[in-house]
Specification:
Blueprint (H helix, E strand, L loop, with lengths): L11 E2 L1 H18 L5 E3 L9 E3 L2 E4 L3 E7 L13 E8 L6 E5 L5 E2 L15 H18 L5 E6 L3 H5 L9 E2 L10 E2 L5 H16 L4 E5 L2 H11 L6 E3 L4 H10 L4 E6 L1 H8 L14 H10 L4 H8 L4 H10 L4 H17 L4 E7 L5 E5 L2
Parallel strand pairs: 7-9, 12-13, 12-14, 14-15
Antiparallel strand pairs: 1-11, 2-3, 4-5, 5-6, 6-9, 8-10, 15-16
Helix pairs in contact: 1-2, 4-6, 7-11, 8-9, 9-10
């Protein structure tokens, strides 16, 4: 996960905003026979960005337009992708409907904001699309009985870089964006995926979830507790994002899994585990070693260690259960953040997937 670099960063536009602009342009062509060069839409916050159309095609009952997604300075997987909207006349009285084209997924599991069997176009973009088409219909004198098909060429491959498959979104990407604006390095898409993973698991009736900091710890905790894939939450560095959401949407049992260095930070009370947001406190680890019976010389070596892993090696050589202590403290932080009835265990694994610390009730 990349972090925000120094300096002022340029904001961008969500997939939903781009799809809305493309649909607005296509609708105008469908009604008038002419495509505008640029399209201006109104976002939920009142901003009115303009978008250039890079694809135009029309026949008697449908029109298609495309917009290049500009995510600003955010490392968005869809930055530079073409977002294509086709607007076609529908049965009188049917209203505005939505369909998935090439590269846009279909929802197959309950728990997401749209039900199974629907295209993965979230409520925020649907509302923007309805507003834009409604305004255009009133201005141009057209009908709002249309079907909007959104496509993202190459979206099937791009979706492999996301968590969509685990969320039950098959066949491509999701069309997202509550505000229409991409805030660079806000990590909103990762947090959204964490929340969606929890929602899908709860809707499936799962009572035990596991949040892991990385792939190795995820595989190890899945084996430890014999969990289905749907129970696995790719927490990454966002322990706080997962725990705070679970506080509002609880489950019976949560396991937090990760390597020693990440969970040392959680044990110290940090809820963002990225190196840009929190640091390992070597002085605190040295005090922990003293509390476990270490000689003063060993604690001094810990203070000058290069990393948390190096301190753990010193503890292991001395036969001191430092990983167990860190697991217990991380569990206490998690329980305090959850502030509910969720049972928690914390599992610390080494790089080989071996369990080296485990705290539970």
């Amino acid at each position: 996960m990349s972090r925000k670099p120094e300096g002022t960063l340029r904001r961008g536009w969500t997939t939903g905003a781009c799809a809305t602009a493309a649909a607005r342009g296509a609708y105008e062509a469908l009604v008038t026979g002419r495509f505008p060069d640029t399209v201006t839409i109104t976002l939920p916050g009142g901003e009115r960005p303009s978008f250039a159309l890079i694809r135009r095609q029309r026949d008697s009952d449908r029109a298609t337009a495309g917009v290049i997604k500009d995510a600003g300075d955010d490392p968005d997987v869809t930055h530079g992708a073409t977002i294509v909207s086709t607007v076609a006349w529908a049965t009188a009285g049917s209203g505005i409907g939505f369909a998935a084209g090439e590269g846009v997924g279909m929802v197959t599991l309950a728990g997401l904001p749209v039900p199974p069997g629907e295209p993965a176009i979230n409520p925020g973009p649907r509302a923007m699309l309805r507003q834009a088409i409604g305004e255009a219909a009133a201005l141009l004198g057209g009908s709002t009985d249309v079907t909007i098909t959104i496509a993202i060429p190459g979206g099937v491959e791009l979706a492999k870089k996301t968590m969509n498959a685990r969320l039950g979104i098959q066949g491509g990407l999701s069309v997202l964006g509550t505000t229409g604006v991409v805030i660079p390095y806000s990590c909103a898409s990762w947090i959204h995926a964490i929340h969606s993973g929890i929602d899908v698991a709860r809707a499936a009736g799962l009572t035990h979830l596991a949040g892991a900091t990385g792939r190795s710890s995820e595989a190890a905790v899945r084996k430890l507790h014999q969990l289905p894939e749907m129970a696995l939450i790719d927490m990454g560095d966002f322990a706080g994002g997962m725990l705070k959401y679970l506080r509002r949407h609880p489950v019976q049992h949560l396991t937090i899994a990760g390597g020693f260095g990440k969970l040392v930070k959680l044990a110290a009370g940090h809820l963002d585990l990225h190196s840009g947001a929190s640091r390992v406190d070597l002085e605190a680890l040295a005090r922990d070693l003293l509390g476990l019976g270490a000689a003063p010389g060993l604690a001094d070596r810990a203070r000058g260690a290069a990393s948390a892993g190096a301190v753990l090696e010193l503890a292991d050589q001395a036969g001191l259960p430092l990983a167990e202590l860190v697991a217990r403290r991380a569990r206490e932080v998690a329980l305090a953040t959850l502030a509910g009835s969720t049972a928690v265990d914390v599992a610390i694994f080494d790089r080989a997937g071996r369990l080296i610390g485990h705290a539970r009730a």
